[in-house]
């Protein structure tokens, strides 16, 4: 492997098999529905799409010397922008719903554009392995605007009792910035 | 992304006009602040020279650079510096700038190296910043240049305070310990931990479009904002079945000296509950288990009777001992700062405790931290309002507190006021003003 | 000339180096149980090669300008160095590292 190639901070299950068109379509629709729930601030609906054993993380990212490019991402036991369980996500949502979370008053107007969706299935992980890119536009108050770009690596499970038929068990968010050009990561990705 | 105005070069005439202005903007007797100090690019430049060019500044924690050749690309004010572990175990700090034409010597945030080779024309510096090679020396007459005179610019002094690495550009700076003045007892108590401390690997960086002094001042002096700024997170974090009650009046004392400030409260049952809520039961129990060993180092009063809540070491190192966040408020023009934040833990703590600390600290005080967000929101809005001319001429009130100078109980050393006070903020700004009025070498 | 014992294998960390003083000054490089020897100074701008990065592919990268050299032949594998490093024969016998300075 060329040292210029990015070392990803997660392990792709070795038995992941590309899914068929219909499955890919269903999972894509699920991701769009999820994005819509976030953009419309229907956070209870969004929480219902997250598995009870959710692991939601975004490792910090670094500029590295050529010989250390494999360490571009914070390792397992290092700094993360998010490292949340479902309980923590519920807490974040609860905070927003108090109407006293000043950093979201007025609320951010977000637009999640989810693209480049690729779906595979892994028997060993008992989940769909779903990669997607995001561009998130955040407008707030009058002239406050921020842009977030990055990619996500998800483990999504079929769950017939979840309202949308799927639940997100794992999400790794990879931001394209090392220095986060934002006063806070107070929105969801 | 915040606006970064072009740098300004000050002349002696401009400096003396600015001195007059500074003197009129800060009135620590009555407690007022002229907010131009947060927005004026000329004052920002003078601040770079006279505050950041002179003070002891936190540049790294030694745990980031354990082995020879490990480096951390840090900042001293707006100046980029490299903090590098040497082969003999010592630490060097020097300007991250090539002496030939000024290219940045190292573009990585952190890592390990054997030398720093400039990518422009290949001049090479050793781990201590000494120029060891002028490339193509024979062909270009490099031997006419005395390499010993063209090393990277080194800081004047370095001090390792229980693992925190500080540096200053000022030859005449007082010793680090002296620079702490009457607040030394508090810093010793926070950082002289059994087995020492470390920061969780890497660093979190984000950019807040607000002047760095808002962060510094708040950590020095402002527990007052908590019940209002952070009410949403406090509500959301209430354990199931518990009712949110009016917070009891805060006991303890706010300490201040030489620009530093912070709050220490009595360690009571409630303090452990606060830790349990902020960091989890396991961390609370772990903390309890370290108190005997800690008392051997810093005494009973510091280790067993006192809970440290928040503090800022002048100018720009903030810490919340309870939430275990350590950060640097890096200035970035008058209108923005970068926050560089770490989770601070005991080096000897079990791995699962470190993990729990990391997760809890990231959740509360970090880029996505639920408390952090509301602070940044307030600071950002102050800064935005200061675009207005009228707004910049309107004095801020910095008068809260009883303005006491001694703890009547005698438990808390040094100059202290009641815990909810702005005495440490007045101290912060009056110290800032004094420094701004004194020229530094090399202006 | 003859082989002389200059170190024991245990003196050298894996992917580490060892300096043999004398005329000429020489660096030993260990890769697994193999040991290689080259001249001390880089052929480009005289960097001390004992400070180089030893690779498990039998290379050493100069600490200053990152030219790589093949430890077996001394060949410079990329710029800015072009001249090969002088190499010297090494034998490892019973944990003793023997060098022929030639
Ligand atoms: S600028 Fe660094 S070598 Fe020329
Ligand atoms: S000194 Fe070795 S490559 Fe330049
Ligand atoms: Fe706060």
What attributes does this structure have?
A: about 190 residues, Nuclear Transport Factor 2, Chain: A, 7-stranded mixed β-sheet, 7 strands, about 20% helix, B: about 450 residues, alpha+beta, Rieske Iron-sulfur Protein, 9-stranded antiparallel β-sheet, 16 helices, about 35% helix, binds FE2/S2 (inorganic) cluster, binds fe (ii) ion, EC 1.14.12.19 (chain A), 3-phenylpropionate dioxygenase activity (chain A), oxidoreductase (chain A), 3-phenylpropionate/cinnamic acid dioxygenase subunit beta (chain A)
Give a description of the structure:
Chain A has three helices and seven strands, in the order βααββαββββ. With 189 residues, chain A is of the alpha+beta class. Chain A has one domain: Nuclear Transport Factor 2, Chain: A, CATH 3.10.450.50. A seven-stranded mixed sheet of chain A has the order 1-4-5-6-7-2-3. Chain B is globular and about 80 Å long. Chain B is α+β, with helices and mostly antiparallel strands. In chain B, strands 13, 14, 15, 16, 17, 18, 19, 20 and 22 form a nine-stranded antiparallel sheet that branches. In chain B, helix 6 (212-221) crosses helix 16 and helix 9 (269-279) packs across helix 10 (281-289). Chain B folds into two domains: 57-159, Rieske [2Fe-2S] iron-sulphur domain (Rieske Iron-sulfur Protein, 3-layer Sandwich), CATH 2.102.10; 181-436, Naphthalene 1,2-dioxygenase Alpha Subunit, Chain A, domain 1 (Alpha-Beta Complex). Chain B has 16 helices and 22 strands. The relative contact order of chain B is 0.17. Chain B has helices spanning 12-25, 41-52, 137-140, 176-180, 184-191, 212-221, 226-229, 231-236, 269-279, 281-289, 291-298, 300-304, 351-364, 370-385, 389-393, 423-436; strands at 26-27, 32-33, 57-61, 70-76, 79-85, 91-95, 110-112, 116-117, 124-125, 131-133, 157-161, 164-168, 197-199, 204-208, 253-257, 260-266, 306-313, 317-320, 325-331, 337-346, 396-397, 416-418. The mean pLDDT of chain C is 96. Chain C has strands spanning 4-8, 17-20, 26-31, 34-39, 53-55, 59-61, 68-70, 87-88, 90-93, 96-99. Chain C has no helices and ten strands. Helix content of chain C is 0%, strand content 39%. In chain C, strand 3 and strand 4 (34-39) form a beta hairpin. Classes of the chains: A alpha+beta (189), B alpha+beta (443), C mainly beta (102). At the A-B interface, strand 3 and helix 3 of A face strand 7, strand 14, helix 8, strand 20 and helix 13 of B. The structure holds FE2/S2 (inorganic) cluster (FES) (2 copies) and fe (ii) ion (FE2).
């Amino acid at each position: 492997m060329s040292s210029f190639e990015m070392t990803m901070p997660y392990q792709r299950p070795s038995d992941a098999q590309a899914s068929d068109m219909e499955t890919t379509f269903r999972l894509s629709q699920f991701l769009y529905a999820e994005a819509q729930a976030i953009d419309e601030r229907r956070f209870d609906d969004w929480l219902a799409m997250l598995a009870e054993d959710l692991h939601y993380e975004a490792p910090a990212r670094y500029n590295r010397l050529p010989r250390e490019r494999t360490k571009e991402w914070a390792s397992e036991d290092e700094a993360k922008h998010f490292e949340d369980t479902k309980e923590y996500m519920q807490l974040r949502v609860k905070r927003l719903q108090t109407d006293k979370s000043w950093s979201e008053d007025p609320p951010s107007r977000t637009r999640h554009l989810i693209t480049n969706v690729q779906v595979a299935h892994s028997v060993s992980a008992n989940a769909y392995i779903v990669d997607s890119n995001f561009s998130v536009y955040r407008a707030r108050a009058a002239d406050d605007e921020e842009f977030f770009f990055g990619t996500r690596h998800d483990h999504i499970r079929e769950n017939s009792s979840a309202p949308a038929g799927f639940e997100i068990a794992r999400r790794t968010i990879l931001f394209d910035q090392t220095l986060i050009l934002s006063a806070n990561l107070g929105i969801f990705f | 992304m915040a606006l970064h105005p072009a740098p300004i070069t000050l002349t002696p005439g401009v400096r003396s006009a600015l001195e007059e202005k500074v003197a009129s903007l800060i009135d620590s007797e009555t407690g007022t602040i002229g907010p131009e100090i947060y927005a004026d690019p000329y004052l920002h430049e003078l601040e770079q020279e006279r505050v950041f060019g002179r003070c002891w500044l936190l540049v790294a924690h030694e745990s980031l650079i354990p082995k020879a050749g490990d480096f951390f690309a840090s900042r001293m004010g707006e100046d980029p510096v490299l903090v590098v572990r040497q082969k003999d175990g010592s630490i060097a700090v020097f300007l991250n700038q090539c002496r030939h034409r000024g290219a940045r010597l190292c573009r990585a945030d952190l890592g390990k190296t054997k030398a720093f080779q400039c990518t422009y024309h290949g001049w090479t510096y050793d781990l201590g910043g000494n120029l060891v090679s002028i490339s193509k020396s024979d062909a270009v007459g490099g031997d006419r240049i005395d390499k010993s005179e063209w090393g990277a610019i080194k800081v004047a002094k370095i001090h390792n305070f229980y693992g925190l690495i500080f540096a200053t550009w000022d030859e005449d700076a007082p010793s680090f310990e002296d620079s702490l003045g009457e607040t030394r007892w508090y810093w010793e108590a926070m950082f002289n931990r059994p087995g020492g401390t470390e920061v969780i690997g890497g660093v979190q960086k984000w950019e807040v479009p607000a002047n760095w002094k808002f962060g510094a001042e708040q950590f020095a002096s402002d527990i007052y904002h908590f019940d209002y700024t952070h009410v949403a997170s406090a509500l959301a974090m209430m354990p199931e079945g518990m009712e949110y009650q009016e917070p009891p009046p805060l006991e303890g004392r706010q300490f201040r000296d030489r620009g530093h400030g912070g709050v220490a409260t009595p360690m009571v049952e409630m303090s452990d509950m606060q830790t349990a809520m902020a960091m989890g039961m396991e961390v609370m129990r772990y903390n309890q288990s370290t108190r005997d060993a800690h008392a051997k180092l810093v005494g009973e009063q510091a280790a067993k009777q006192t809970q440290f809540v928040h503090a800022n070491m002048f100018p720009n190192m903030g810490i919340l001992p309870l939430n275990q966040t350590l950060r640097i408020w890096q200035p970035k023009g008058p209108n923005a700062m970068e926050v560089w934040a770490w989770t601070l833990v005991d080096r000897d703590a079990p791995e699962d405790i470190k993990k729990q600390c990391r997760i809890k600290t990231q959740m509360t005080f970090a880029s996505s931290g639920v408390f952090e967000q509301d602070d940044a929101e307030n600071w950002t809005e102050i800064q935005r309002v200061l675009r207005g001319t009228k707004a910049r001429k309107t004095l801020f009130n910095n008068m809260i507190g009883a303005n006491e100078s001694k703890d009547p109980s005698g438990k808390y050393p040094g100059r202290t006021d009641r815990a909810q006070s702005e005495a440490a903020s007045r101290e912060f700004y009056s110290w800032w003003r004094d420094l701004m009025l004194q020229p530094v070498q090399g202006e | 000339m003859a082989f002389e014992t200059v170190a024991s294998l245990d003196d050298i960390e894996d992917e580490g180096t060892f300096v043999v003083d004398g005329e000429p000054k020489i660096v030993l490089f260990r890769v697994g149980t193999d040991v290689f020897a080259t001249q001390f100074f880089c052929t480009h701008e005289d960097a001390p090669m004992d400070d180089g990065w030893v690779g498990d592919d039998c290379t050493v990268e100069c600490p200053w300008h990152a030219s790589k050299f093949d430890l077996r032949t001394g060949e410079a594998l990329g710029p800015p160095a072009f001249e090969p490093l002088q190499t010297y024969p090494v034998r490892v016998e019973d944990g003793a590292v023997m060098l022929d300075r030639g």
